[in-house]
Write a structure and sequence with these properties.
single chain, 294 residues, alpha+beta, 2 domains, three-stranded antiparallel β-sheet, 9 helices, rod-shaped, binds zinc ion
Length: 294
């Protein structure tokens, strides 16, 4: 009796009956002798099997795949099919467990961020609709270093550093976070269904993408929006860009803490959201989320 990985490697007699394919091994750097004494080959990969010899004793040995097929015939074919099924099931179990472990924390955290992200998205899209000049100006400034620079009518140069620049150049943060939540639910649904195939589960998990990264991005987007939409910052920003905007087609004014935008030619401002309220909501979400993080 020799040993393979601390397990007995018994010779497999000609009359042995195949009991079970335990597991596949290899590829190995150092090939090992086949359990079939008449094989005389070294195999770099194969299977560890249990068998019953002619006296009814149970043994355990290694065997190559082709050798197994030739020696055990139909019994090998059937056991190999079952071995693959067991393997798929255990892989399915492993993938499911790993996914649930990962998303148990990610899903509620993402969900908590959704209301604030939605509000932020609403403010952004309203600003783009009502004050496209202002937003495009800020966007260009962020892309070229983050400083808004405007030369006033008396040639005085106004400058302002844009905070939370991501707010002006990005978009769709809420949709991405929502899609990540939906992807998690979709995979959980598959896991709960006993008819789910490993291939489908793997595909859906891959398709869901890096969910930890999705949460990280959502957090970052909210933090950026919080900085960008701080009433004081917005006021300063508008004071600079607004110097030109008053001759442009659109204008925005910050009235106390409420940001308002007016469409061209309209005297009636459209409230796009109370910034202080948004700031509180965003802060609350990020804090709750931070304390809930392990
Ligand atoms: Zn062999």
């Amino acid at each position: 009796m020799s040993h393979f990985g601390g397990r007995p490697n018994d010779p497999i007699p000609r009359a042995a009956r195949l009991e079970r394919i335990e597991f596949a091994y290899g590829p190995l750097a150092e090939f090992i002798p086949c359990g079939l004494p008449h094989c005389k080959q070294l195999h770099g990969r194969g299977f560890v099997v249990t068998f019953v010899d002619e006296n009814g004793a149970v043994g355990r040995g290694v065997i190559g795949q082709d050798c197994g097929r030739r020696h055990f015939g139909e019994a090998w074919k059937e056991e190999y099919r079952q071995h693959r099924a067991r393997q798929r099931e255990s892989e399915m179990h492993a993938r499911s467990t790993e996914f649930v472990r990962l998303t148990d924390a990610v899903e509620p955290a993402l969900e908590k961020l959704l209301p604030a992200l939605e509000k932020q998205e609403h403010i952004r899209s309203t600003l783009y609709r009502c004050a496209p000049f202002f937003m495009r100006h800020c966007e260009t400034a962020v892309k070229s270093g983050g400083v808004v620079r405007v030369i006033g009518p008396d040639l005085q140069v106004f400058e302002h550093n844009i905070k939370g620049g991501g707010f002006f150049v990005a978009g769709g943060d809420h949709d991405r976070a929502w899609q990540a939540v939906m992807a998690i639910r979709g995979v959980r649904h598959l896991i709960a269904d006993p008819a789910t195939k490993l291939k489908d589960l793997s595909e859906r998990i891959s398709h869901a993408g890096d969910l930890r990264q999705a949460l990280k991005s959502a957090r970052a987007a909210l933090a950026e929006g919080q900085m960008a939409l701080k009433a004081g910052h917005m006021r300063d920003l508008i004071a600079v860009v607004g110097a030109q905007m008053q001759f442009g087609e659109t204008y925005i004014r910050v009235n106390g803490s409420v940001l308002e935008a007016a469409p061209p030619g309209s005297m009636k401002p459209i409230a796009v959201g109370n910034l202080v309220e948004f700031g509180r909501l965003a802060k609350q979400c990020l804090q709750q989320e931070a304390t809930g993080r392990s």
